[in-house]
Amino acid sequence: MMNNNHNWWCLCAVLLLMAVGTAGAQSVKRPQLDQHHLLLDANLDQNENAAYCFRSFQEAVNHLGDSCILYVAPGVYWVDNPDDPEIKVGKDGREPFGCVVKCRQLRIVGLDTLAQNTVLAAQRGQTQGAVGNFTMLDIWSDSLVVENLTLGNYCNVDLDYPLNPALSRKKRSDAITQAHVGYVHGKWLTARNVRFISRLNLNPLNGADHSYYENCHFECTDDAMNGTAVYRHCTIDLYGQKPFWSTFGRGAMFVDCDFNVKGNNREMFFCKQGGPVTLIDCRYHAPSDSIYIGWTAYPQKWLRCYQKNFTLNGKPYIIGSRQQENTIVIDSLWLQPDEPPYLAINRHEAEMLVGGQPLKLHVRSDGRKVEWLIQPPYNQIATLDTSTGDSVTVSIACDFVDDPISFPVTAMTVDGEGMSAVAVCQVTVQPPLLPAPTFLKAPRISIKDGVARVGYQLNLQGREDVSRIVWGRLDSDDCQQEAVLADSNNGPQHTYKLRPSDVGRRLVVSIRPAHSRSVKGMLTQIVSRPITAKDIKAPYCLETDFSDVRCQSSQGLVPDAWQADGYKPADTAEYPWTFDPKKPMWAYGEGFNGAVGKGLLQAQRGARLMYTPAEGTYTDMTLTLQVDPTKTAGQGFGSATGQYMDVCLKFDTQTLTGYGLRIIRTTKHAKAVDFYLVKYQNGTVMPISDAISSTCYRTGCTISLTVKGDLLRAHVETVTPKPQDSTLPHVVDLSATIAPLPFGGIAIQHTGSCGESTTMLHHLMATW
Fold this sequence. Notes:
single chain, mainly beta, 20-stranded mixed β-sheet, 2 helices, 60 strands, globular
């Protein structure tokens, strides 16, 4: 019977209804206790039967057997002692836990039907009493049922307990950090009449194969909810913008639920990384009717989500209108579904080449009948070997495709009950690659007004030139390339601004010709005439939009060249992270979240970029850097675990000595970072100014550093308006008296986690 999901959920509902009646009786009368029925009650008499009665949660857990019901009397029970000064650290690469619970079949039942009266609590989070994302409970149970409880990590939320105000407790910190409730390792989780309280990364007992929440309440910011679950008659208070990280596991479904927006975001999304979501008879409550609600911020074309009778502030609303194919609107249902209409497919995106190998797709149907479909006119380009079954082979039926064509291959269940489950693979058919274009006019280097330019003419046949052009400098003997000076990250790099170290040397230009449909051609190299001092535009100014910076790790320091590499500073030693030196540390491309347009992003933690100027003695210097943090709330980095970005000038790239500005996330604020000036001395960093907490590290941030004589100044501002609810400064001005140094180098060191926590570099200008 357990293999039939519908029957299982019906049985579960019956058991839960029985449990509610029992709990109501238990709130009046003490339950019968034995080795399978234990009681947790902080107000026990000294004469109570100690064999089955316990005053602390830890004591009760130590006496759990193979199958057990733990009854919990009203009160506040600290799963982890909030007054313990120890900083909790995880083991074996896992998070630190308040309590590990092991019981094959476990029910935890509050004896009061008012869930707020029975509280299991913790008060730690990342950098706030713990190193790592502190998690209150780590439960190993094949079947876990929790009822009539509040499960709260009160790291960043006040614990208010009206039954006995003496048990109330203020939050550990206002700065919101990752603070989990719990994980479940097993097959089944059922939660009824449970309040899940935290903020960032709530984790309301995530992890079971099947999770079911009924009449529950959730309070959370981002990356918080269980993405493999069914929610019925629940309320979700949204203090952030994206409550799910993803729902890729089996999908999430909400039935008759209320979402309450507690912030002032103009755009709200369900998922950060996407995945299927189903909303049936749900209501969204927001401060404004003009808010946009999407499934995910960057919706994939293959995504399919469902909605029926969804309203925003009482009015019908279609979710994800910016990409309409993502949304399936259901008018009616034969019956209320008992699980998300999720159909797992082996690939969501695929490329096929005309004349290449066919594509094989497979779904996990769990015995349901599946039909496959390619909509016209794309069924003239690609064909299926069958229309039904768990597997299908896609073949290209058209010999002539001049441009890439993208279309969905759809699989859907047709069992006639509930709603059809849909899965899509977005297939892109690429035309056959053509030979590389030939030169109609051979490459030639010209030098004028401080700029070297390579000109040529290719037989492109009307297509876009996507040749890769790399600029280098030959050594003094004209024997080999001394350095890579400019690469092609954003189309062919036809120009190169001459630098002082080029004087007396020749430039070498390497070209691999290609157009948008061709293979890369053979390498062609040409060499310039020797560069003279008159060729350099004076005064020299370094300027880049980073589209010319080589992202692969460089080999050694070369004058007037960028070096991209990875480095783990000594002041991050307490945080165990590494990088792979064989992989690029930087990546140039499109931005996301708060990063707008194109720019240079960190590809690994510890990404470092250094510019070594020409040999000489340098005095005054200015540097201006324009950046976009991908974080939009002003926190800049993933967490306060030694995550910062240093922007340095007057820097010796060999000894790591100089001055700079540090931008760092701390535990002081959840939506701001600290700024302070630093001195580097042989790689050791020390602050040389007070720190200023500010909200200006947001999209359109400009960082200006100036050294004039013995005075170092920093100014930071942003085009993003100041948050209305913040009293922190929105502009940063710092200064410090320094000992003049003869160096003129530049360094940018990033120790933050990557992905959603990067900073895009847009433009840099330096003068000496």
